[in-house]
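Module 6 notes. Inverse folding takes a fixed backbone as the condition and produces residue identities as the prediction. Think of it as a translation problem where the source language is geometry and the target language is the twenty amino acids. Below is one complete input and output pair. Work through it position by position during the lab.
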């Protein structure tokens, strides 16, 4: 029995415009780049380092030169100063997701030191979608400070902020109350930003009970 040859051998003979359109349509859907902090022992001293989980290089970047050129119009090798290994990131669509508040604080340490000299080309200013997993019920003052000082200050151009809450044993009414509290705090954060430059700030707030960070991309696409 002969083996079916599934190679598409005439792809290179297609018109260049058609090939480029195929590469564009092959760009993956928005990804969730999950950031975790690990401890590294260096000569007996523990250091905290940030790593990106499930952040494989998109296949189009190493298919051939033509596909790579198209993919590089979407993806940028990013966060070299923040991560042990930088990742290719689509700033317009991908979600930068932090496993907990400590991960977020550690990630922006570099940003905190260099903020006065970052300028308009900073990677932090390009992030459009960010997620944070929390393990506690928010209180107005505490969470307002977190969002204002750690999220919106360092990522002022966000279009979507996803808050994932891992709070066990809550009734449906309690979950609704918490979501209402989150949204009220977020509204106060945005209002405080209006006063700084006079420009209304818009950012979609999404509160979700944590079922798994891999589902966040779906929320963004819906």
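Target side of the pair, the amino acids:
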């Amino acid at each position: 029995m002969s083996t079916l040859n599934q190679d598409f051998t005439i792809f290179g003979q297609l018109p260049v415009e058609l090939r480029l359109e195929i590469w564009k349509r092959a760009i993956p859907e928005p990804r969730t780049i999950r950031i975790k902090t690990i401890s590294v022992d260096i000569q007996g001293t523990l250091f905290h380092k940030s790593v990106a989980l499930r952040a494989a290089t998109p296949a189009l970047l190493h298919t051939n030169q033509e596909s790579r050129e198209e993919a590089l119009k979407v993806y940028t090798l990013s966060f070299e100063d923040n991560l042990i290994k930088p990742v290719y990131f689509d700033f317009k669509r991908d979600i930068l997701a932090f496993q907990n508040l400590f991960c977020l604080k550690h990630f922006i340490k570099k940003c905190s030191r260099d903020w006065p000299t970052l300028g308009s080309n900073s990677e932090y200013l390009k992030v459009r979608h960010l997620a944070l997993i929390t393990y506690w019920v928010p209180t107005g003052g505490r969470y307002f400070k977190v969002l204002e000082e750690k999220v919106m200050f360092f990522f002022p151009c966000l279009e979507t902020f996803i808050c994932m809450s891992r709070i066990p044993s809550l009734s449906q009414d309690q979950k609704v109350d918490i979501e209402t509290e989150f949204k009220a705090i977020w509204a106060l954060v945005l209002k405080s930003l209006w006063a700084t430059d006079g420009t209304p700030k818009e950012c979609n707030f999404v509160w979700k009970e944590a079922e798994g960070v891999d589902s966040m991309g779906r929320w963004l696409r819906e």
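Reference fact for the lab report: The mean pLDDT is 76.
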